[in-house]
Structure formats: structure tokens, C-alpha cells
Amino acid sequence: MDKLIELAEKYSRWMAWAGGSMVLASALLIAAEVFLRKILNISIGGADELSGYALGVSVTWAMSFTLMHRANIRIDALYHSLPPRLCALLDILSLAALGAFVGLITTYAATVVSDTYTYSSTANTPLQTPLIIPQGLWLFGFIVFLLILSLLLLRGCIALIRGDLSTINKICGVRTVEEDIDEEVSDDIRELINNRS
Predict the structure, then answer these.
(1) Considering only CA atoms, which of 64, 29, 71 is closest in space to residue 49?
(2) Is pLDDT above 70 for 185?
(3) Residues 31 and 77: beta-carbon distance below 8 Å
């Protein structure tokens, strides 16, 4: 199962890079649009529409990476003062609650995409974009997120049954300040080594 989690981490990283690339491309498109309008008084057209699609898709595509790296926001005012076993149980419950919430959103998103496909809906814009493309990519991000979340939840439940609290913390626990500092220091050291090479 740990091999599957490693594969999920690599896949979620790729999706995050792809989503970030979409946002960067849309920013460049908007910059080009503004430049062409100001200087040459011409318009590419559709830059706002395409950037909206890129933003929606990139958010769902980055969710898995955020979950894998425990970068999602959690309220942890009391968390660190609780016993480790209770923290582990709360971590599993929070992952399950997140899965239920995103599962509900995904169900409604799938209904929207299904209706779009059934009616061959297009955007009410000059581009007349077939909405199945951005909506399908958007839904894909939700589905991948749920699959990865399910994998982490299963691994966390197995670890909870075995009493392996460190694995639960590694999978879905709240990141500590020390972990954040270690990661930042590690990145800085790697950059320093690369610059010297």
C-alpha cells in the first residue's frame, strides 16, 4: 500500500504542476490581451473565459497534492495538547469528514458534467467553448482527489488498528512548526548545494 501512496504522491505532484502551468499560461494570455489592447487596439478575445476555466481546473488538480503534503488548513488550537491516540483518531475522522464533503461536491459536479454532455452545452460567449472540456477536467480533479483520499484513509485506518500513531501523523496529521522549518531548511540547503555545483 505504501507503493500506491508513493505513486499517488508522484501523480498528484504532476497534476499540481499541470494546474500551475494552466494558471501561468492564463496569466500570460491576459497580459498579452492587455498589451495588445493598449498598444495595437486589438483583442485576442476569450482571455477572461479561458483564465476562468484554468482557475477552476487548477484548483481541483492541486487539491490532491495539498492533501498528500498535509498543507490543507486545519484548526489546531487544542490539537497539540491532546493525547497522541486521540489526535490520531481525530486525524482519521477529519480525513473521513473531508472525504464525505468532497464526495458530495463531486456527486453534484458529476451531475453538472452529465447534463452538459447530454445537452451538448457550449459557453454563451464568442468562443462557444464546449463546456464538457473544462467541466470534465474539473470533475477529473475531484475524482482523483477522492481516490487519493480514500487510499490515505484506508492506510490510516490500518495504522490505527495496528496502533501505529506515527504513520497516521505522517499521512494525515497536522504539520508541526518543526516539520515546516525542517522542510524549508532542507530546501535552502539543497539550493545552496546546487548553486555550488
Answers:
(1) 29
(2) yes
(3) no
**Residue 152 banded pLDDT, cuts 50, 70, 90:** very high
Beta bridge partner(s), residue 130: 122
Q: Mean pLDDT across the chain, nearest whole number?
A: 91
**Whose grid coordinates read 492587455?**
34
Bridge partners (DSSP) listed for residue 122: 130
pLDDT at 146: 97
Q: Which residue has the cell 473521513?
A: 96
> Do residues 70 and 172 lie in contact, with contact meaning Cβ atoms separated by under 8 Å?
yes
- Other C-beta atoms lying within 10 Å of the C-beta of residue 16: 19
Residue 176, classed as helix, strand or coil, is coil
Rounded to whole angstroms, how far apart are CA atoms 23 and 99? Answer: 26
Of 104, 74, 147, 149, whose CA–CA distance to 157 is shortest?
Answer: 149
| Number of helical (H) and strand (E) elements in the chain, helices listed first | 6, 0
